[in-house]
Design goal:
Length: 121
């Protein structure tokens, strides 16, 4: 029912910025909590950020607080992850996720295919 498609990944130098986008379809976007996860080579998938259905509340992993910003545009059915001051350890495949609900969560039901982010030093 719900389809999520990420874009915006690529190669960026340490200290630089990158903006990821996730386009959603197949559901009422404003009824979904959205999130971002990442998976580095040889590591488990980890939570990065989440945003409430209205966009009023956000939650971040401690490792990205102050550097990454999650946002959404419900008119465009799109969620974003603005990554600033990136570090080589941020290199990973980044996944968009969604769950029906209103408040922030780290548990999600729908997943995109992922977009590769590579940070060089």
């Amino acid at each position: 029912q719900v389809q999520l498609v990420e874009s915006g990944g690529g190669l960026v130098q340490a200290g630089g910025s990158l903006r990821l986008s996730c386009a959603a379809s197949g559901g009422t976007f404003s009824n979904y909590v959205m999130g971002w996860f990442r998976q580095a080579p040889g590591k488990e998938r980890e939570f990065v950020a989440a945003i409430s259905s209205s966009g009023d509340n956000r939650y971040y992993a401690d490792s990205v607080k102050g550097r990454f910003t999650i946002s959404r545009d419900n008119a465009k059915n799109t969620v974003y992850l603005q990554m600033n001051s990136v570090k080589p350890e941020n290199t990973a495949v980044y996944y968009c996720s969604g769950r029906r609900g209103m408040v922030v969560t780290t548990r999600f039901d729908y997943w995109g295919q992922g977009t590769q982010v590579t940070v060089s030093s």
